[in-house]
Amino acid sequence: MTDQRPGLELGLFMPNCSNMSSISTWRTVEDEWPYARNKAIALTAEAAGFSLLFPVSRWRGFGGETDYLGTSLETMTWASALLEATSRINIFSTVHVPVFNPVVVAKMGASLDHISGGRWGINIVSGWSREEFGMMGIELDEHGERYQRTAAFIEILRGLWSAPPRTFNHHSKWYDITNGVSLPQPPDMPKIANAGSSEDGKNLTARLCDWSFLSTPSLEATSAIVSDIKARAEAQQRSVRTAAFPFVLWRDSEDEAQAEIARIIEHKDAIAAQNWMDGASIESGSFDQFTLDMFTVGAGAVHVVGTAEQVANKLKLLYDGGLDAVLMVLQNFLGDTQAFERDIMPILRDMGVIAPTTGRQGAALT
Ligand SMILES: Cc1cc2nc3c(=O)[nH]c(=O)nc-3n(C[C@H](O)[C@H](O)[C@H](O)COP(=O)(O)O)c2cc1C
Fold first, then answer.
1. Averaged pLDDT of the chain
2. Which of 37, 50, 91, 322 is most buried, by the most CB atoms less than 10 A from its CB?
């Protein structure tokens, strides 16, 4: 960490959906999707000095033995409750463009911003599962058009949140807004993220978003992905922050950690994993470099596995490669968040990866 550069922001890719940790029947704790469990995890993460919580948005599961992600808490209502339960941590919702009218989302978002004192952010996803949207009678646009619509959606949000009331107009193939108004307006623009990994997705993020939530096949590949999105943003005279989602697991020895990974894979829900992987990468090729076994552990997360020391070093590698934040997937979210504070955060502090003040003594949240 340098004077100019803030430390790595710590976050969780929260289990608002069932079976969130891995596409496997192997578990060390009960499924953590119920709200009481999410609240306990959020409070624990906040107390430990984490700065970001982030949910998945899903409308149906992916079948197989686990019906992976089949039970889920809707993310606007989920964020509303968690923002009230917490006081410092930033919490995102994830919204599917084809499902919501942007005027409704502008109003819900401004309400959450108001309720939380500016701690709410939004991940705007174009959607990719034809089954999921087909269930609602919604046909997904062709991939490129999907991102044009997402751009229109973001422009409408920003317009309604900042233009003088009754002056905002937008007319496109998808939306007709005349003399648009949505009050209250947030005092500062809520942070907007996109998680697209295709050319269209990356260009949209660079042009219109504050955060890129990226997928990466390996630790080594991450810095090039980070540099690429940052360069695209710079070309637009903008800056974009980056977050990856690592699956983080550590044990006293590397062999024990790898044995646990082997157990997760041995119990994989192959049908659900294949359904997920096919749907997620069919158009963009985002996960082409993943094998089904890799994909099972953390559902597309990059693996950060070993002893506490090795895990800290791998997180340092991500930080040194330019990454701004991690949205961690954990095997046992509540217990592992507590253990992360005890086992890993002191090493990260000593290495200068997180600020010395990140933790219980004081918040260093950006
Ligand atoms: C960290 C992260 C979170 C994501 N969250 C969701 C989500 O909650 N719901 C969803 O439908 N897609 C989600 N996606 C999928 C992306 O929005 C996107 O569709 C996918 O990465 C494929 O990229 P592309 O649309 O650019 O082809 C997520 C992706 C990443 C990397």
1. 93
2. 50
- Alpha-helical segments (H) within 122-198: 130-134, 143-162
Of residues 112 and 289, more confidence is placed in: 112
What range does the domain containing 196 cover? Answer: 9-350
pLDDT for the residue 190: 98
Q: How many domains does the chain have?
A: 1
Are 211 and 242 spatial neighbours (Cβ–Cβ below 8 Å)? yes
Can you tell me the mean pLDDT for 308-331?
98
Report the nearest atom of ligand 1 relative to the CA of 58: 9
φ/ψ (deg, to 5) at 47: -65, -35
Give the CATH number, domain containing residue 286. Answer: 3.20.20.30
Decide: 193 and 91 in contact? Cβ < 8 Å: no
Q: Ligand 1 centroid to 4 CA: how many Å?
A: 31
Residue 162 lies in a domain: yes
195 with 125: CB under 8 angstroms?
yes
**Mutational pocket test of ligand 1: of 17, 52, 197, the residue with most ligand atoms within 8 Å of the beta carbon:** 197
**Ligand 1 atom index nearest CA of 285:** 27
Q: Whose CA is nearest to atom 8 of ligand 1?
A: 56
User: 195 in ligand 1 pocket by Cβ < 6 Å?
Assistant: yes
Q: Is 213 in the pocket of ligand 1 (CB under 6 A)?
A: yes
Q: Which residues in 51-190 belong to E strands, given as ranges?
A: 52-54, 90-96, 120-125, 168-171, 176-180
In a domain, residue 357? The reply is no
Ligand 1 centroid–CA 253 distance in Å is: 33
- DSSP assignment, residue 135? T
Mutate which of 58, 125, 131 to test ligand 1's pocket (most atoms within 8 Å of Cβ)?
125
In a domain, residue 292? The reply is yes
What's the pTM? 0.95
| 366 within a domain of the structure (yes/no) | no
Report d(CA 209, CA 150) in Å as an integer: 11
